[in-house]
Amino acid sequence: MFTNQYANPSRVGVRPDARLAQAFLTQAFFWMFLGLLLTTGVGAVVAGLSDTQLANLEGLVLPLIIAQLVIAFSLTLAIRRIPATVGLLLFFAYAALTGVTLGFILQVYDLGSVVAAGSAAAGVFAAAAFYGAVTKRDLSNLGAYLFMGLVGLMVAMVVNLFIGWSFLSFGISVAGVVIFTVLTAYDVQQIQSGAVAAWAGAMEKGAVMGAFKLYLDFINLFFMLLRLFGGNRS
Fold it and tell me: Using H for helix, E for strand and C for coil, what is the string for the chain?
């Protein structure tokens, strides 16, 4: 999704005018907001389960993670061939599964840390999104660097699962905050310019993919900030 074709909506003739661009960005933010509400609601339900019920769900964590990956790749690869409604349902399914993960996280971190991380993520996300929407600077040339940064981040996280170095975990979290902050500005500009719609092949599908990308930016930003400043329950 960081190819030259993705960054050039004029190739398929879907570059919107100013009013359409604003409506397109608003639609993407609307779906993203609903996705976050769904994640929060499911997370609250899971967090409210008894210890016995949570223990029974622990065996489903790995299958749920795999399901999330399958949905994410399916949505990204198939969005051009499936109806926008199906894409939206896949997005909401992903958001619901993320809510289950969030529910387990709420059991690990104290509520104050979760609220602080969520508030910080909202502030950083809003600032980055605003910059991406109003800046005259072309951010499309950052795509390749952001992609390499994401790959490096994932590799470092996998490696640290085996070595468990605390300073590496801290570095991963800091790098993650930086990467997803910049990625938020980048994605907002790409959505507003019509580049996401050009890549998806239609405005409606572009709005769904835009919402999915913004949702991932916010959720990952939240998780990275929680890793940095979160305090475990005593």
Answer: CCCCCCCCHHHCCCCCCHHHHHHHHHHHHHHHHHHHHHHHHHHHHHHCCCHHHHHHHHHHHHHHHHHHHHHHHHHHHHCCCCCHHHHHHHHHHHHHHHHHHHHHHHHHECHHHHHHHHHHHHHHHHHHHHHHHHCCCCCHHHHHHHHHHHHHHHHHHHHHHHHCCHHHHHHHHHHHHHHHHHHHHHHHHHHHHCHHHHHHCCHHHHHHHHHHHHHHHHHHHHHHHHHHHCCECC
Range of the structural domain that residue 96 is part of: 14-229
| pLDDT tens digit sequence for 54-85 | 888 877 888 888 999 999 999 999 988 999 99
Kindly state whether residue 98 falls inside one of the protein's structural domains: yes
Which tens digit of pLDDT belongs to each residue from 170-227?
A: 899 999 999 999 999 999 999 988 888 888 878 888 899 999 999 999 999 999 999 8
How many independent structural domains does the chain possess? Answer: 1
